[in-house]
Amino acid sequence: MSVLSTQRQPTKSDLLASFTNGVIPDAKLYQQEIQVQLAWARGLTQIGLLTAEENARIEKALLAAHEEIKTQVFDWRIVDEDIHMNLERYVNEHSQGLGKKMHAGRSRNDLIATTLKLHVADTAQEITGLLKALIQCMVGFAQKNIDVIVPGMTHLQNGQPIRLSQAILGHAWALKRDMEKFETVKTNALKVMPLGSAALAGTTLPLDLKQIAGQLGFQSPPLNSYDSVGDRDSLVEMLQATSFLGAHLSRLCEDIIYWASAPVGLIKLSPNWSTGSSIMPNKRNPDIAELARGKSALWMGDCAGVLTLLKGLGTCYGSDLHEAKIPYLRVTEDVKLTLEVFAPFVSELSVDGTKAEALLNHGHILATEVADALTLKGFAFRDAYALVASMVEAADKLQVQIHQLPEAALKQMTNLIDAEFLSHLSFEKTVEQRKFAGGTSRGQVQEQINILLNL
Fold first, then answer.
1. Catalytic: 277?
2. Would you call 66 a catalytic residue per the annotation?
3. Which of 13, 277, 390, 423 is flagged as catalytic?
4. Chain-centre distance of CA 157, in angstroms?
5. Annotated domain spans of the chain
6. What is the pTM of this model?
7. CATH superfamily of 14-104
8. What would the pLDDT profile of 332-353 be if each residue is shown by its tens digit?
9. Model confidence over 121-138: pLDDT tens digits?
10. CATH superfamily of 109-197+236-355
């Protein structure tokens, strides 16, 4: 964005202007704002308040402003307070004063409410696309490593063997739910158009507001002008969706950080998407995962902040609403950047197969398989559980895994299980037993991959 002009009206103090203006955040809404301005000018033309020639000149000026803002040469002036008045001044300068006519029948109140809803809808669509790209990267990782088996964990304790792909796809399903939330955010933002509500009581002009709503992508013109100008639900819904995304992304980050840690060593970070230490040449740091984990906390905080801002306002409009734009824009820009970098970061992660195999022999992760086998032989599950728990205790004393218990140790506990039975247990067979809906067998994992590939 170009440097803000210091031009000002003599009666307005610099301090007041610096405190009340919203030019910097507003400037980020320029595409949607100009879209709204163009639609309104066309509406004024239809009812004869603008001639076709005047409308053409206004349109030309607005499109020129669009290009100047895009190329960062637009002359933003703090004294004009916001994007609406900056554009009105620009149109005046480039169309012999026609900017004075294009504001008829509306207010900055319904203008900004409409512009924000369009921005929310466009941003939700962008984030949906970025999430889809990230999910595809995760699916690619899962497909590539479908035969890697690792200990599945609860409470950060090894539990049962699973395919690593099952863990990664678990995160992908959470992100798919986030995609659906952002799709809903877009749908809800475009339900009702505020434009035509004017300052608070509705416009006096006989415009075809239903037609204007359709041009802008809204389902309906205003339903209640008093509500419309103060409605910021779409901002809150966006921030709520980013909070869910932040929670899910943070959990993925935590897993990656854990898997890539030196004691675990399951995942190797790409040098393209990690950094080294300034002093220790032996280290690679998971900066992207750590920063994303940290950013997610701020997204949640900003959501709470905007809700708190809104809760104490009276119905209709107040200048407090200007402040809601700032965290909204900060969060959405941060979310988009995070998703843009996270997809290639995930794509270039690699798995240490040797380390994966070594990890399987920690935590007696075939214990449940032994208990299930006893249950199939007619044991009550709780009795089988107690017997296998004693086997785990014996294995710990011998410093072996449960499936490595020697015959002599087994005979002291039971005659239902022998070393030959244990020797036929395998991590591969165990995961393939989980062949029912949602399980970790190869077929079930591949089914998940196929579904997620076709989002």
1. yes
2. no
3. 277
4. 29
5. 14-104, 109-197+236-355, 359-446
6. 0.93
7. Fumarase/aspartase (N-terminal domain) (1.10.275.10)
8. 999 999 999 999 999 999 999 9
9. 999 999 999 999 999 999
10. Fumarase/aspartase (Central domain) (1.20.200.10)
